[in-house]
Each structure stands twice: as C-alpha cells, then as structure tokens.
Amino acid sequence: MPRGEFLLEVRSEEIPARMLEPGVKELATRVFEELMARGIGPREVETGYTPRRLVLILSGLPEGEPDREEQVMGPPVRAAFTADGKPTPALLGFAKRTGLPPDQLSRVQTEKGEYLAATKKISGRSTREVLAEIVPRILAGISWAKTMRWGSGTGPWVRPVHGVVSLLDGEVVPFELFGITAGDTTEGHPTLSPAAFRIADGEDYKRQLADRHLEVRPAERRRALHDTMRSQAEALGGTLVDDPSLLDKLAAICEIPGVMEGSFGDAFLELPAEVLATSLRDHQSALTVASPGKHGKLLPYFLTVMDRPDDPAGRVRSGNEWVVAARLADARFFYGEDLKAGLARRAEQLQSLNFHERLGSYAVKTLRLESLAATICDQLGWTAEKVPAVEAARLLKVDLATEMVKEFTSLQGIMGGIYAREEGQPEAVWQAVYDQYLPASTEDPLPRGRVGQVTALADRLDTLVGIFGLGLIPTGSKDPFGLRRAAQGVVRICLEGGLALDLEKAAVEAANLFGDRLTRKPEQILEDLRHFLNDRIRYLLGLAGYAYDEIEAALAVGSSNLPDLRARVDALHKVRETPGFLTVVLAAKRIANIVKDAAERTLDEARLVEPAEKDLAAAFNELRSDIEEAAAAGDYERCLRRVADLAPVLDRFFVEVLVMAEDEAVRSNRLALLQAIGRTVSRTAKLTEMVVDKAEARAKAV
After folding, report:
1. Tens digit of pLDDT for each residue in 578-629?
2. Contact between 581 and 643 (Cβ < 8 Å)
3. CB under 8 Å to 383, separation ≥6 — which residues?
4. Which of 117, 233, 285, 470 measures 20 to 30 Å from 451, CA to CA?
C-alpha cells in the first residue's frame, strides 16, 4: 500500500448527470487548496464519479503539518509596567495566557507604539486530524445547483447520503456527514451487487469495484461505451453515428458501462433521419446506426447504456424497444399532421407566437426579415439571389408553429427546411431554412449558398438590432436572447462567406424596419452594436492567428466591411517584420504625437525650405497616388509595402528638420506635411496601434 494515500468515497442516491463533474471538481479543488495552505499538499489528485458516488484519491500526503511559530501580541509597554517598573495585572494576565514568564516576553515596535509579544511554538497536527476536520465541512459546503432535505430535515445536499468511505493509509479517518459515520465499507451496484464489502486502499477499492463491473472513472466508462457501441454497430452491418455530447451523458448516468442494442420497425425509416435520431436521442438517450458510406441511411437499430454488464433475459431490451416504438409512433403522427397542414397554414399561426412583447409576433418579424433580406441582396449586388432570399425569409420561422418542433425544439429550422423541401421549394430556399441557425459555434459550418447566408444574416441582425434597440445589452454572463452567439454568427458569415456588406448601413436599415417599437435611436444602437461586434471580431481573428495589435490597428480604421477588414489585418501580418515598415510605424507614432493638438492645416510646397523636407514631400507625392490606388483596389499588402518606402526620407527628415520652428508659417507648413503623411500611411490601418520596440526596429534595419 502506498504511504500518504487518502481515499474518500461518498455514496448517495442518484445525482443528476450535469452536477457530477462540477461537484467532484469543487470537492477536489477545495480539499487540495486547504491542504496546500497547511503545508501538507498531496503529490497527486485523482477524482471519479458515478451517479451514486463521488470519489477522491490523494497520493503522497505527508504525515502531518510542519511545526510553526506564532507571534501573539500583548499589552502596550506603557500599560505593562507601573511607574516603579513592576508588572501590571495586564502583563501578568498576558504572561499567564501564553504560558511564558514575563522576562521571556519580547518587545515589538508597531505603528501604535511599543508592545509586548510572545512567540509560541505550535506543533503541527497530523494529516489525519486535518482531514477529519476539513473534509466533512467541504463536503457539506459544495455549491450544488439544486439541493434537498430528507428524513426529518437532514441536509441540505444534492441527494440523501447513504455511506462514506474515508481511509488514510488503510485506517479510517473518522468524521460524520449528515448523520452517516465514515468507515471502510462500501457497496456495489444497488441491484446487482448490493452486499457491503470492506476496502483496504485505493487499488483495492478499484479492484473490488471492477470485480462487480463498476467503473468510477468517467473517461474509462466513456471509452468502453464508445468502443463497444462501435463494434456492435459494425456487427449490425453499419457504422455508429457519433454524438459526443450524448456519449458524455451516457457515461455520466451509469456505473456499469454496459451497452444495450435495440431495434425498431422498418416502417419508421420513412421518417426523416433527423426526426429519428432526435427522437431516439431526446427520449431514449440512444445513438443511431447508419449504413456504411458518407451519406449512409439510418438502419433500424439503436444503442444505449443499460448500467449492467448483460441482459440475459432480454427484459431491458424489450422495455426500451417498447418505449422507442411508442415514441416513434408519436413522431410519425406529428410528421403526418404537419405535412397535411402545410407551411402556409402554419404560417398563419405565427401571429399568436411572440418574438418579444415589445417587438411583435413572429409574423411581424417575418415581414421585417423579407425586407431586410432584399436590402442585403441589393447592397451586395446579388440580383439572382433576391427572390429566393425573400421566399426563404418568409418561411424561416414557420416551423415554430409545427407539431414536430413543439415536441422537439432542437429541430427548429431543420423541420422547416424538410417541410419546404417536401412542398417542392427550390433547393436554395429549403436549404436556407434548414441552415438558418448555422453557425451556432466556432466549429459549425456556414449556411449552404448565398441565399442561406443572406437569410441567416438578416435573422441575426434583426434580433441584435431589436434587442439592442430596447437597451437590453448583455452584461456579465447573462445573455437570455443569445446575442453573443448571434453576433458571432454575423461575423463568421461575413468574414468566411466573403460578404462585402456595409454592416452599419444594414443595421440602420434593420432599425428603421422596427418603426416606433424601439426605445433608442439608430445611432445609439449602432454605437453599442459596433463595440459588441468588434469583440467577436477580435476573438475570431485572434483564433485565426493574428496578433492583437494587428487587429486593433485595422479595426481603428473601420470594421463595417468584414472581408475588407480581414484583408487589411492579413496585410499587416505579412509586412510587419519588414525593416522599412517598422521604421514607418515608429515615425507614425512620432507624427501622431507632434500633430495631436494641431488644427488641420493646408500644405504649401512653395514654403518648404530645407532639402530634407523638400525630399520628403517629393517622395510622399510620388507614393501617395500609388498608395491610394492600391488601397482602393484592396491590395493592402502592396499599399503597406509602398508605405515602407517612405522610411529613409522620414528618418532623414526627423534628423535634419526642426518641425516646431520659430517661424509660425514654416512650422504650420511642416505640420501640414506631417498631417498629410499621417492620413495616408494610416489609409489601411492605424499604424500607431502597432506595438514596435525601437531596438527591434533598429535591429531589423541592420
């Protein structure tokens, strides 16, 4: 048995899957931190959990706390002695409390004067004593999302506690938790192996649980489930349809990673695969099996966990198959009813579905989306996409009134796309409806095709502008309307879809479509929305590998056209290491400092007198047209490389010319020259935002 090992297991009634990992993580973190603060931290920390037990194993614990000294402050010296130097009662009382004679007390100078003090030697407690003190307190204080009381009011805790194992080097660390005394005995599965058994240490604990087919490590349960499911799917002549989040859930709701295979009638395969998979996932926590190939169709099988190693009598399978058949029959009924009703009839019901109490129903939102989708197509010059985009916008929210989406809210958009396809809508239209919630994360693909991107963009802009127009801007972690996700979708669609759209102009159009429903003016909405979108832009461009100062420099010039913004960031990224460019960046910072308080001036080249300033003006005039031409053509790399050509003459200018000359006319003209240069070199990005070290620039120039 390894020395310094502490094993803790808390058995309870079943804890909800979503609470298990946060609960055991908080337990481990708090125990570790308290032990470290006492100088007895472990070398290793291992955690585990099942629905019925939390497990913590600490290894490499020392035998006890180190001894320490503690200074105890006593009375002030002036109050410790009488006029003739004898101890006062205050001094004698302090000496008695500390157990030291008065002559062994020390004097300490403080801000309030001189005080007597005693240095006490405190022997460190054993690790066993410390664990007995802190573990029950930490366990009782775990911040569960929901708690309960049981019996005659015991608790509160997440679920009633049934047993506690608490062993340090094989010996019980005694404490009590909610009336349960810690010991060295646990139990297996409540049905299959309920008999109690003794535990010697951590390895014995894992071995004895394994003998009973129990696994406390969730990652191992997940791996075992996935491997078994994949093998069984292959044995059925298909492949497992992966669902990582569902697999995580299955690993959390079992102690024994047993896999149950079931089947359903072939007639249910007439349902769309999305409906089949969602019904099986939501109602039965089951994964599906598809025929081999990239676009394989679903097979009439499902796989789920059964929290037991086998099902010899087939009762678990038959029970699950009975429930699945009933659920799929319901889904088939909903699907049939929706097809009979048709989208046009369902669209009438949008009048009674509120998007927001101040912003109107989904029927009103649909009218806005039709107009906004048309406007976006006009701005982009996409004439062929305008009619299908308006049609897709008309159908976008209709499935909210369908029976299927009422039953499975996760199928929003998807069902609308399926029903539109069944009614013979063009591919661009039904795909746009189907893909309307893409992308929902940084990993999701964009909507397919231009029509899908336009309608998805219109939907998000309408929501953002409407909610911002009511002043309901997300703060902290609260975002009830999903505005951060919507904003990220806007940015990704424009950036990755290459939509050269004036977002600010589109947002103003979206605000105008609300009429008098909004409480804020378009310019107020635009100001807040710009900052909100810029945060998403920073995040996404940062993920793409661009430096923060490259992003900030490009943002400072404008962020309404996102493909243009990315092109400018990319150009900065490519040229930032060139010596001449680094020199110009430093010069731009110097120019900004010189002209920051100066009024705008007009350059009169006839008043240039020094050779260095004449040469700078000549070089600038030669480059300015090239720079403007390159910037107008979107060739930002060429633009910035041409900016770098100013480096030698700028360096010479600052060495040989005094900008702030005594002659007011000369000074004004030189300021005008620098102002013109500053505007031009910042045509692509605000170079003053770039971070460049002077020594770095000199080294690059060598």
Report:
1. 877 888 888 888 888 888 877 888 887 878 888 998 998 988 888 888 888 8
2. yes
3. 377
4. 470
Mean per-residue pLDDT over the chain, rounded:
92
Strand duo 298-305 + 354-356: pairing = unpaired
Q: Name which of 618, 616, 640 is nearest 627 in CA terms.
A: 640
| Beta bridge mates, 478 | 475
Which part of the chain has CATH 1.10.730.10?
572-701
pLDDT in tens, 282-322: 999 999 999 997 778 999 999 999 999 999 999 999 999 99
Q: What is the pLDDT of residues 634-670, one digit of tens each?
A: 899 988 888 888 888 888 888 888 888 888 888 888 8
Query: What are the pLDDT digits (tens) for 169-202?
Result: 999 999 999 999 999 999 999 999 999 999 999 9
Handedness of CA 85, 91, 96, 102 (dihedral sign): negative
What is the spatial distance between Cα 84 and Cα 266, in angstroms, rounded to a whole number?
A: 107
Which residue type sits at 432?
Answer: A
Every domain range in the chain assigned CATH 3.30.70: 6-64+126-211
Q: Taking a C-beta distance cutoff of 8 angstroms, is the pair 302, 289 a contact?
A: yes
The DSSP annotation for 480-537 comes to TT-HHHHHHHHHHHHHHHT----HHHHHHHHHHTTTT--SS-HHHHHHHHHHHHHHHH
Cα 345 to Cα 29: distance, rounded to the nearest angstrom = 56
CA count, 13 A, side-chain hemisphere, 165: 27
C-alpha 433/C-alpha 419 separation (Å) is: 10
pLDDT tens readout for residues 479-514:
989 999 999 999 999 999 999 999 999 999 999 999
* Summary count for the chain: helices (H), strands (E): 26, 20
Query: The CATH number of 572-701 is which of 3.40.50.300, 1.10.730.10, 2.60.120.10, 1.20.1280.260?
Result: 1.10.730.10
CA gap 640, 579 in Å, rounded: 12
Torsion-angle region of residue 558: left (phi > 0), alpha (psi -120 to 50) or beta?
left
- Whole-structure pTM value: 0.83
CA distance 51 to 222: 14
Instruction: State the Cα–Cα distance between residues 516 and 359, nearest whole angstrom.
Output: 10
Q: For the domain bounded by 6-64+126-211, which CATH number is listed?
A: 3.30.70
> What is the total residue count of the chain?
702
C-alpha 121/C-alpha 112 separation (Å) is: 26
| Whether 316 contacts 260, CB under 8 Å | yes
Of 448, 449, 453, 413, which is closest to residue 434 (Cα–Cα)? 413
Residue 14 pLDDT greater than 80, yes or no: yes
Alpha-carbon span 228 to 243, nearest angstrom: 15
